[in-house]
Amino acid sequence: MTTNHGMPISDDHNSLKSGARGPVLLEDFVLREKIFHFDHERIPERVVHARGAAAHGVFELTDSLADFTTAQVLSDTSLQTPVFVRFSTVAGNRGSFDLARDVRGFSVKMYTPEGNWDLVGNNIPLFFIQDAIKFPDLAHAVKEEPDRGFPQAQSAHDTFWDWIACTPEAMHMVMWQMSDRTIPRSYRMMQGFGVHSFRLVNAEGVSTFVKFHWTPLLNMQSVVWDEAIKINGADPDYHRRDLYTSIADGEHPVWELGVQLFTEEEAAEFDFDHLDSTKLIPEEVVPLRVVGRLTLNRNPANVFAETEQVAFCTQNLVPGIDFSDDPLLHGRNFSYLDTQLKRLGSPNFHQLPINAPRCPFANMQRDGHMQMHPQATRVAYTPSLIDPSGPREDPVAGFRTFPAVVQGLKTRERSATFSDHYSQARQFFFSQTEPEQDHIVAALIFELSKVELPLIRSTMLGHLATIDAALGQRVAEGLGHTAPIVPATPAVEPRTDLKPSPKLSILANGPPGMVGRLVGMLVTDGASSVIVGALIEATVAAGASPKIVCPRVGGVTLDDGSHLCGDFQLAGGPSVLFDTVAVIASEAGTTALLGEAAAVSWVHDAFHHLKVIASTDEAEPLLAVAGVAADAGIVALAGAEDPVAYVTLAGQGRIWAREPTVRTVY
Ligand code: HDE
Closest Cα to atom 29, ligand 1: which residue? Predict the structure, then answer.
């Protein structure tokens, strides 16, 4: 061990004192250096997206887009492009909880042979605003209220809904934000989107517009709201733990990269302007072409050095990919570079290992704080006769901006083609299955019930009624709002009835399956070893992980005398942590569980969170006390074959038909 200047340290545990019980001496430079460095360990957290988790991986192109772009990463199928991906929540501080109702960031840095390409996206394909100049207002509205410093990581408060109520362009995004998309079960089970239109430019200089989509192989899945609230208490790191553990266990999450390609002429036919980031292009209008896969296979070795210091910049492009004229994107191109300087403290942040390109990079930029690449050259400029050998531009391989024709008056004006704020909001609502629509209604009721000013609530009801009269009515009923609703006046009339797009639903796009899911097994002393064994086997065979919950974490003794270790003690392993649950209890074990509040709420919550529940006959009294009523999701574990049937059923997802029996659906 040495000081930061390389001097060997003889004692790192005792400061220099005048006598063993005497005062500490200022002379102790070993102490001072250690404390000085500690004092400066923190850097400013991200102003938004502060809380994140990240992983390394690889992007492999499976279908070349060489006809559309010269970018090697999208045209050379032999490349294995290293990537670093960071997921995040938006509103909460770095120490906030994972299951906030919030948009999730999905940032991908690809270390391509032509430089870094950063696709800094979200898990929702559109955004709240049309112009970057509104972003600070949005962030200020959703973050803690400045005069009180709360609420943390929540949109359910006055200032957020005040701003939304005054911002009709946000209505489409609000419908997504109130949907199950914002309470994902796992980062591995959500989509990612580049949001804006970009351009691909081929060798002939022809440009095609493109939207980028990441689709998880594990399918999408969300938790239910009451579960989200409870997970935040039981395990605030639920998502980061899930990502870390799955990668550490070799269950590498995979997403497919899909592109929507369209020409300027095709864009002119859309019902909306593709440069408006509050709109999406339904897959039914421009189908998705799957061109590659992203696999995350390595956890960061040091979260500060990698997850915290990674600096995504939307301006990081590679030749063959270019910006569209989306005004939101242009604002972002300024913001990301600027914010990294504040956060990382030096214009040389690109030299940090996590940010540095993996290809050679060189130019005449010099010096600055924390310069790690001092160049031993006399000439730090071009052109030069003294030394003509330094880095020079490459007019052929270098990045060239697509020469789009631009003309117009300088004006602070929104295009009339950006004016329809309600049609796609309505389309999204009607593209959802019934339970998903019910959840949007419930989320709106929850959020608006936290709003204290009645004017904000009534204005929001007007917007909702403009999206759909019945939606407005349902939310009003749930709020107990009896006054007439005054619909908002849309900027453009009439609001169009767009065709529903089933691709926008989570539930309509396939059952979740069991791969990557957790089966919580509550096991007591004397429980059937045959059932426990068969259940573990069926769970593992389906690609899921069994988690044993016991009254004591040391484990239980099964009916054949064998010992089963616990993964969780009952109170520390509530059922919200698992996708489906089973109670394998003996008669005596059940009697003991009846006296444990944690056991009763374990089963009660699983039932009310619409989970498939399996149990042995002996556990019946516990289910009865927990208020479990028989339905298609309650499965008996009597014989050794029952576990397979149970796991198959659980792979279908939640029992949505149970929902109206356990809560009021407005
Ligand atoms: Fe960001 N955003 N953003 N954003 N954003 C940041 O950059 C900003 C927007 C997104 O994992 C900041 O490094 C403006 C859309 C992600 O490190 C900041 C506007 C989308 C991340 C910033 C937007 C995003 C950020 C804060 C309006 C989806 C986390 C820290 C034009 C396509 C990146 C940082 C990470 C982070 C600005 C809108 C996604 C301040 C001005 C739209 C995933 O620069």
Answer: 49
